[in-house]
């Protein structure tokens, strides 16, 4: 399965910091989404188009907080694809703080191929499957 290590970076901005002085837990899924969008773009796709009129929809998410994340921290994102079926796959996310190389957050999202025109689950297009295997 496809794994991309430290394929992109994110700098934590003031709007992502909560009253405790660290990144708010609600911002983790936004990091996952930003990483997922960049990952798909690197493969030539988007969340709305994996080809054949098929996009994606997230059906499940798990977030594991390892260390606090602070203002201006630079996080390096890694993604691994796993548990591929005909209609879904799991994306495994890992974020490392660049300054000390500590893993600060990780998690997974279950991604389902979805035909937005029909409003139903779809098969993952073969060309996309070949790129993520």
Oligomer: single chain
Q: What fraction of residues sit in β-strands?
A: 35-45%
The average pLDDT is 97
CATH topology descriptor = Thiol Ester Dehydrase, Chain A
Number of helical segments?
2
What is the CATH H-level superfamily? Answer: Hotdog Thioesterase
Shape by Cα distribution: elongated
Distance between the termini: 4 Å
Q: How many strand elements?
A: 6
Major sheet characteristics: 6 strands, antiparallel
Reading the helices and strands in chain order gives: EHEEEEEH
CATH architectural label: Roll
Task: Write structural notes for this entry.
The chain has 133 residues and is of the alpha+beta class. The protein has one domain: Hotdog Thioesterase (Thiol Ester Dehydrase, Chain A, Roll). Helices cover 17% and strands 41% of the residues. It has 2 helices and 6 strands. The protein has helices at residues 28-42, 126-132, and strands at 3-11, 55-65, 74-82, 88-97, 103-115, 120-121. Strands 1, 2, 3, 4, 5 and 6 form a 6-stranded antiparallel β-sheet that branches. Strand 5 and strand 6 (120-121) form a beta hairpin. The longest helix is centred in the N-terminal third of the chain and has 15 residues, at 28-42. It is elongated, with a radius of gyration of 15 Å. It starts with a strand and ends with a helix. The model has no long low-confidence stretch (mean pLDDT 97).
